Amino acid sequence: MTQTLPPGIRHLPIYLDRASQERLLEAVRAIVAEAPLYIPAMPKTGKEMSVRMTNCGSLGWVTDKERGYRYQPTHPVTGRPWPDIPDMLFEIWRDTAGTDIEPEACLINYYDSSAKMGLHQDRDEQEFAAPVLSISLGDDCLFRVGGLKRSDPTTSLRLQSGDVVVIGGENRLAFHGVDRIYPGTSMLLKREGRINLTMRRVTPANKAIPGKV
Ligand code: SIN
Ligand code: FE2
């Protein structure tokens, strides 16, 4: 059954075939070798998230107890710049994002079999004209997407390895989250779990020139 999704939200099932998933996984492994997964913590409380994170791109999304949610050009543990976004990810963005705006950040989330991510909005960016593009690798998950208010009704989707989800348009700020992982549903990774990549534009794409019309 095809589910009706809110406007601006698109689900592209198995957008990447198995060979492309393997190629992307190799690129992710190279990034993680340079920029290791770290344990993100919630602002203020310092509560550790169950997801492990790293990034590629000129900016990466990070969070910790002291400084909270933000983008920064360096890895919070190694202090080194994030690795470049692989060409393959730029190609996927150009093909699916529906915009000329270039992405700057790619957050890489690793979920083990018990990890999840609570309902939240991606709103730490300064540019909302570009969508958030999500790519899944490894085990299936139960993804939930709602509306612009936390209390809006939500739709649940089972995402598989190779799926792309576009969160954009009037629902660029839709609440979304991952309720559960289905361990052992994919043979792509060496172990159980799921990798999710989310690409975003962070800085304003068109800087207005004061005084010009
Ligand atoms: C996220 O919202 O950052 C991740 C979404 C997902 O894992 O599918
Ligand atoms: Fe998100």
Name the CATH superfamily assignment: Alpha-ketoglutarate-dependent dioxygenase AlkB-like
- Structural class label: alpha+beta
Helix fraction, binned, reads 10-25%
- Terminal Cα separation, in Å? 48 Å
Alpha plus pi helix count: 2
Overall average residue pLDDT: 96
Secondary-structure element string: EHEEEHEEEEEEEE
Query: According to CATH, what is the topology?
Result: Jelly Rolls
CATH class: Mainly Beta
Shape by Cα distribution: globular
Please give the order of strands in the largest beta sheet. 1-10-7-12-5-2
CATH architecture: Sandwich
Number of strands: 12
Blueprint (SSEs and pairs):
Elements: E1 9-12, H1 18-34, E2 52-57, E3 60-62, E4 70-72, H2 87-96, E5 105-111, E6 117-120, E7 132-138, E8 140-145, E9 155-159, E10 164-167, E11 176-182, E12 194-200
Antiparallel strand pairs: 1-10, 2-5, 3-4, 5-12, 6-11, 7-10, 7-12, 8-9, 8-11
The protein binds succinic acid and fe (ii) ion (FE2).
Describe the structure.
The chain is built from two helices and twelve strands, in the order βαβββαββββββββ. With 213 residues, it is an alpha+beta fold. The chain has one domain (9-200): Jelly Rolls. A six-stranded antiparallel beta sheet has the order 1-10-7-12-5-2, with helices on one face. Strands 6-11-8-9 form a four-stranded antiparallel beta sheet, with no helix packed on it. The longest helix is centred in the N-terminal third of the chain and has 17 residues, at 18-34. The model has no long low-confidence stretch (mean pLDDT 96). Fe (ii) ion binds at residues 120, 122, 176. Residues 120, 122, 176 line the site of fe (ii) ion.
